[in-house]
Amino acid sequence: MCIMGKPLNKAFENLGKGGYGGVWAPLFCRSGSLLHEQVMDAGEAWRIALEEASATLPLAREDIDLLRDFGELLGKSDRDMQQAVLAMEKEKVSVMERKAKEEAETTGKLYRNLGALLGAAAVILLI
Amino acid sequence: MDKASHLYALDRLRSYLPDRINRVVGRMASEEAAGLEELRINAGMPLMGVFSGFDRFIAEDGSLTGRSEKAFCLSREEVEELFYRLCEHSVYAYQDDIARGFLTLKGGYRAGICGKAIYQGQVLKGFKDISSVCIRIPRELKGCAEPIFPFVKAGRHDIYNTLILSPPRCGKTTLLRDLCRIISTGSERADFAGVRTVIVDERSEIAACYRGVPQNDCGPRTDVLDGCRKAEGIEMALRALSPAVIVVDELGTGQDAENIKMAWNAGVRIVATAHAYDIGDLKERLGFGILIGMGGFERYIVLGMRNGKRWIKVTDAYGNQLYTDQAAGLHDGVFRLHGHGAEIFREAESQAACAAEVQGHPSVPGE
Question: What order of strands is seen across the sheet that includes strand B36-42?
Answer without folding.
Answer: B64-65, B54-58, B48-51, B36-42, B123-136, B110-120, B102-104
